[in-house]
Amino acid sequence: MSFSRYSTDSVSSATESSSTLHSTVSSASSATVLDDHSFPSKPSWIDLVKADTKLVDKSLVIDPVLNSHHHVVVALAHRGSGKSTFLSMLAEFLAMHSKHSIETRLECFSKCDLFTKRHPFFNKHFAKCPVIHLDFSQHGSRTYEDALKHFRTSVCRATRDLVNLLPSFLDTPADKNGRVGLYISAKAMKSHIEHVTMLFTDLDKGEGGRVEANALVTGLMEVLDKCLGGQQSVVLIDEFETPIANIMCEPGIPQGVREDIVLMYSSFYTAVFKNNDCLSFGLL
């Protein structure tokens, strides 16, 4: 697996309302309209390690990736090289919030070279930032409607846990000036969280298009940045090129449909990776 590095220019009252917002997000998390079994998720790196799957330890690659000094890194890899597993491992390493406990993640990483040979580096970066991990590997549609459904499904899967985390910020005590963290007032925080939650809820119900999906991801990154005192997010996309490659290779699709689907993905990459002050780095 080789890496090509690019700069971003190359990638076309709060406490009183806390319980209400908790309820709203809880309802959203249980509404799995798009997340059906016809579009299954891949097993995570943690799942593979726990199942004693034989894996090549690529954990030491994390160091050069994080120290590339570029906002966007494109990993060029052929199928079967383990890129998807590496992205999953990287997500579990960096993510401050995961469906797996810290103890489980530490147990799995304790078997890796990064933990045993680069422990200071490991401690510095482990579980320190928000991670949005998208999987586009199964995106391939003959109609714009199906392509949009797959896109919404992946966006909702990647953001669901972080959106569910947002109400906890409303429980953070404000200082004497009514501000929480470094950059945002409690009132502004409530407004930002409500907007992101509304976008997620609509998309999870199958409503909204590419503009709303883009706004959900960038809006979530902005909220997390403000609520966490300037903590930027990491965005990982597995098989970012697959949707466009599939639509270009599939015969019999009207040119207008091809263009609309290409625009859906290219506009997403532009929104997330270009001139986004809330992005720490992206890996595709």
Automatic annotation (TrEMBL):
Report the superkingdom from the record: Eukaryota
Q: Which InterPro entries match?
A: AAA-ATPase-like_dom
The membrane spanning regions, by residue number, are none
Q: Which residues form the AAA-ATPase-like domain?
A: 47-283
Q: What is the official name of this protein in its record?
A: AAA-ATPase-like domain-containing protein
Q: Which organism is it from?
A: Coemansia spiralis
Q: What is the lineage of its organism?
A: Eukaryota, Fungi, Fungi incertae sedis, Zoopagomycota, Kickxellomycotina
